[in-house]
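worker-3 :: picked GOLD domain-containing protein
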Amino acid sequence: MANRVLPLLLCLQHVLHFCLGFSQSVDSDFTFTLPPGHKECFYQPMRNEASLEIEYQVLDGAGLDVNFYLVSPKNDVLIFEERRSDGVHTVETEDGDYMFCFDNTFSTISEKVIFFELILDNIGEDGKDDEDWKKYVMGNDPLDMKLEDILEKINNVKARLSKSVQLQTFLKAFEARDRNIQESNCERVNTWSMINLVVMVVVSAVQVYMLKSWFEEKRKSRP
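worker-3 :: tokens ->
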């Protein structure tokens, strides 16, 4: 029994090592400020039979809108959206550099704060990682089959954790946008309240002055 447990533990150690070092999907996020009248483009190299998912959101700026388009390596416009505040798009990719742009040229005075996240699936080298896994988990031995089940469970947990992180990141972006809207509304309310207060004070002063001047004229008109 000890002779079989030791190889199992060694294989499990290799599985955990590869599971921690290898990821089938990669995600990254970025927040930047897009000045009025400007366009900003980004490039992402991809390979065949991979998946590119782009999520974007306008966090701040008048109108909370921006033009967005995605261009393939063959210069084909895959996606074009005009004056949108957010969007989520997934495309199956081919070899080459994909370009995605955020366009604020329609705005002349308002800058935009834009958040976007890239989720890249199946971007590893073809077949190499799968062969590394199979070297440790494939076989006819019952212990090998149980090890393959453990590997499948680990991959499922890892995929769910990755999706949870992506969802939390996007929810943070929504929260940031809502907070910016609330702060902007609060600033507008305070500004108009101060204007109304100043107008009321000025009108009250004018009324007092006019009433006072009327009584003074009556006193001067008496013999």
